[in-house]
Prior knowledge:
This protein is α/β, with parallel strands linked by helices. 32% of the residues lie in helices and 21% in strands. The longest helix is centred in the last third of the chain and has 18 residues, at 233-250. The termini are far apart.
Amino acid sequence: MKFVAIIPARYASTRFPGKPLAVLGGKTVIQRVYEQVSRVLDEAYVATDDERIFQAVEAFGGKAVMTRTDHKSGTDRIQEAATKIGTDADVIINVQGDEPFIQPSQIETLMHLFDDSTTQIGTLGKPFESMEAVENPNSPKIVTDNRGFALYFSRSVIPYIRGKERGEWFGEYPFLKHLGIYAYRREVLAEVTRLPQSSLEKAESLEQLRWLQNGYRIRVGLTDVETVGIDTPEDLQRAEEFLAQATKISSP
């Protein structure tokens, strides 16, 4: 199978304008994402709506494609970029442009989900490490069926553990955190970006619920690797500390 990665990167982030061009350990965030992806895939593109990001990507030797400014989601931007590129890849991987520590093992896990011909969309889940983290509405939860297909995603704590005090819940069920990396069969990506917003998507503000509500199947791969996404300037500082610690560990 042929895979291509497309990395959506907007300049006009509400909480952190210019985030892709923020410098992390001497390199821009978008360069770090691109280099991590390129460790696994020969073909990767940054899809952006800003000339500054486009030029920065070309300056470090990456490939970029300009897209419209009015997209409502990263998925829509991915589809426009895939069309402009004219890719013949079987599967398109959507790696967020604010995940500079995405690991090759995570991308490989995502790719292997498509060894099964019934996988239409793939994503990743990671076991939560505390009940406090489970209760954070900014960390969507996943429940899956016995074959690893998503049954539902929610900002609420799912499932509800009946008959137990909330303080006991964490040991009763392996709560699963959703990581926002996706892969789509090329024809499925084209289909889901034509769907109108669904009622569940609007309720939870989770785009993947649109796909589930319309009958698409999302297979969830498991990872034990934690990444540090960057949404705010404070996250960038946290990422600097994470990078420094990782560099210290890997040094002889």
